[in-house]
Task: structure prediction
Amino acid sequence: MQQDCNIGRPVEVWGISLKNLINKSIHQSIMKRIHLLIHGRVHGVFFRYNAQKRARALGIVGWVKNIEEGVELVAQGEDRDVGMLVDYCRRGPLLSRVEDIEITEEKPADEFHDFEIRF
Result:
């Protein structure tokens, strides 16, 4: 009679535990879309450029633009990545001073293919 040698040991696929693969797959399937209004000293400090650069590095799609009251941003991506972009927007680039940020969660849609600066 042959015994199963994996009893009590974590199952691995290509050196990654099956538990981590499942958790990552579940996490990656959670898409989030947010709409931000960012207030404070956010004009003339490269806020849009840096937000675009950070969003693209995180694989987030959407857009950012200046508005009279500050900066408006729509971002869609994996939940964790969108959270990281929001954390960045709370701080902003070096010369900015974010005073307030309004966050509205929206239903994800398949309308963006990149993260762009709008005028």
The CA atoms of residues 62 and 86 lie 13 Å apart. Helices lie at 18-28, 47-58, 79-91. The chain has a mean pLDDT of 87. Residues 79-91 form the longest helix (13 residues).
